[in-house]
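Hey,
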Amino acid sequence: MATDVDIKDLLAAGAHFGHKTSRWHPKMAQYIHSKRDGTHIIDLAKTVANLEEALSFITQTASEGKQILLVGTKRQSQDIIKKLAEDTGMPFVTERWLGGMLTNVNTIGGRVKHLKSLEERMATGELANKFNKLEVQRFQEEIDAMNTIYGGIKELNSRPGAVFVVDVVNDINAVREAIKMKVPIVAICDTNADPSLVTYPIPANDDAIKTIQLIADYVKSAIETGKAKATKAVDKTEAAPTEKPVVLG
């Protein structure tokens, strides 16, 4: 079942408010409805169409058992994206995007492996048995610091099936790495962004918390629908009767 988008909800969330006309990106012209008091107004009819297409893709990606990397490092989006990741079991980045998170798997993977090793040794009491309290405290501080940076991608199994980005301009490095790795990008594109960089651009206000939350809720619904389809497909496969071999003679 496709996720239907209500234009009234987008309007109420202020999704139509773009940036000042002096800060626009010309490639967003196709998504701009008008100008009001020096501010561009986004055409919400196009937002609905693009968002529904993006949600359909997200559902399909999730139904194939692929992960969707959720990215939102600016203040307004951090808590929303982290909660979305927790609710859907998807990997996320809400702190600074480290160069190589997608393009340098060996280095980043090595750091994540080190983090997991420290956590395991801390949990089993190995560190407490080998080191004094001050040293154990330093290990815990290292674990906490690494979790701030790498915690959201500890369970990123391989190259994700898609990347969802809240702000293309703010997280341009994530966008560039996804492009380099040929990973499809779903992203909110405000009037100052270049939508041509994105596979599925969603023209909308990327600064308003209400808009970010609303779109995140739609993304959550799309992911859950896709995961439910995947589970149903597995159940059907397991329930299918096994054909007995034909014995001749």
